[in-house]
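Section 4.2 – Deliverable D4.2 (structural model, holo form)

The reporting period included a commitment to supply a predicted holo structure for the target in complex with magnesium ion. Inputs used:
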Amino acid sequence: MPQVALDTPLFEVVGARSPSLRRLEKMGIRTVRDLLWHFPSRYEDFTKIYTVAEIEPGQQATVRAAVEEIRARHSFRRHMSIIEATLADASGSIRAVWFNQPYIANTLRPGREANFSGKASISEEGDLYLNNPTYELVRLRPGMSRGGADGDEQEFSHTGRLVPVYPETQGLTSRGIRFALQQVFRRLPPLKEWIPESVLDAFHFPPIEEALHGIHFPHSIEEANGARARFSFEDLFLLQLITLQEKLKLAVKHAPALPADIEWVKSFLARLPFELTTSQKKSLWEIIRDMERTHPMNRLLQGDVGSGKTIVAALAALIAARNGYQAAFMAPTEILARQHFETMKKLGVGGGFPVFGLLTASAAVIHYGEDGLESKISKKEFGDKAARGDIPIIFGTHALIQRSVNFSKLGLVVIDEQHRFGVNQRAELAAKAGPDGIVPHFLSMSATPIPRTLMLSIFGDLDLSLITELPAGRKPIETKIVPPNERKGAYQFIHKEVKGGRQVFVICPRIDPAEENDASAATGGMAPVPSPARLRALQTALDLKSVKEEFDRLSKEVFPDLRIAMLHGQMKAKEKEDVMKRFKSKEFDILVSTSVVEVGVDVPNATIMMIEGAERFGLAQLYQFRGRVGRGEYASYCYLMTTTAAQSTNARLKAIIEAKNGFELAEKDLQLRGPGQFFGQVQTGLPDVAMEALRDPELVKHSREAAMRVLQENPSLKKTPPLKKRVEEFRAKLHRE
Ligand code: ADP
Ligand code: MG
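Output (structure tokens):
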């Protein structure tokens, strides 16, 4: 039998005509590697072999018995084929029944002996039978007693042992997967271990071959768990190697030294209408220290919504400009880009200001810092000026700046809402080095409290500055879970607040795309899974529906006397901006919006955040929404609206009321929903095993330490070719997403 390699396409193993091939491919399993890394979701314990007499109703059991009699029937009433057999061992006999598997009669001929694993049930007539048991023939070997009681015990894969159960789809059974796996294992050449022996030893992980056998065909639960632990560790370890290597790579690059004129910084701060909080000052100081060095800064500035990150980053941009370099200040949406631009304008009172510009899909504006004049120009002209270095600070959306703008001397890149980014974009941006190999300093900002485990892994190459307190004088936000019967009261309160001059956000949930998936699975399971693009389109349509419906209901039925606007993803950027602008200038009382509404929008006069279908959102997201109120001098409120009374006792919703800070919530969210949900729409490109493993802080810590030790002696991994290759494969997989 020819051997296979990990990259061998599966058709070479199972045969191009095998019906399981198409089903496997539908699940994205195309190569030997894909199949080997498709792990069981659980195991059924059929380790003990019972005698027929021992079987009790309700039990999951394996018996070794001979087929005494077997017959096929057809149930016309229920359109089913039924196979019935009588199985017997020395202790007695029992019936077995299979539905719609007529071929069974071909293999289970009278006289054959087999293991039968299944559930013992009681029939309508009151007798015991095995329902749809999995069976496996006992091989008849010449010169050996049946069952092989000596050392050459037959290995069973479906019965008489721990039987792996796989997440199944598209009609492929666990038995089918186990069968394909057996064929693979039989032809698999020895695999080279890629995890260094010292690391395996330190954590007592099984080597790769043992682990693969152990996870698919374990002899004990301990063996299965040990194998799984290795694979969880392995993914994190590879991830750590990648981020740490990224960090090392950056460490040998150079950035322009951009020293700050401390006297100027002081006088600038003195002119602000407020004093920076202690942690704003500390963060600013950390950034200044980074920027004056020729080692590129790679820092994440993290702080709750409203903690004042913008001013800190704006100062960094001004420092770059004062050194004759350019700064790119990027936001995830046009509204936010414009908000940053406007903030810079307000800061401009005073002097010492460079030219700065705003470039979005709909606008190209230049502000002549010192004299406060502003003019709209064409995007082309904007691009030319930027390329000549005539616009030292440029605000824009990520897309615009990444794609279309060239800089003559880029010294600093600021990215707002970093958590929307995966591992790769950062690497790409860092790669946007000048021809002389000089890279810009890099500052990202995020209001999403990133749990420590993720910080150390996915964001493991970043230094961290934390803004831990809100500016003085902010009032705590009163948060309340509102069951359906208290909705009326909430509306009355909203009405009163609006009459008092305040404004209100109403957020409508998006329907989780996963539910769409489930719905199609439930209707027969054979419906093609919609493509991600199709899902997104569906999503937008659903969002739109809920926002429009809510908008109609509120404006016609609930608050006919109030001014209500809506905001959703299908509006043009220009329209969205217009609505947002008018909301800010108090032309509307209530803004009904989808959850995709711009994070970080600053409307200090808004005091109520009403979140519909709150149970649908992640904690981190709810936390973000809530942070949009309580930004001004007024007492603020957050209403978590639930659709049934039962949800008002929802532990997750309670967590948001009880949590002391965003970090605590983020950790909880991660525990409750897993990293996939935490990142929401973001594709991290991480395999499921790694995503799961990220829940385990100890494992993350160990993987990081192990990766550091390995890189210390072997920074390019040249000394360990199998590991180097494995890291490259893993990296390629991350990039493919
Ligand atoms: P975020 O961290 O969410 O981006 P912003 O930078 O938008 O927060 O700041 C929120 C508001 O707080 C802005 O109006 C800003 O001018 C104001 N602000 C920032 N720092 C302080 C401070 N130290 N004291 C008072 N207000 C501040
Ligand atoms: Mg912000």
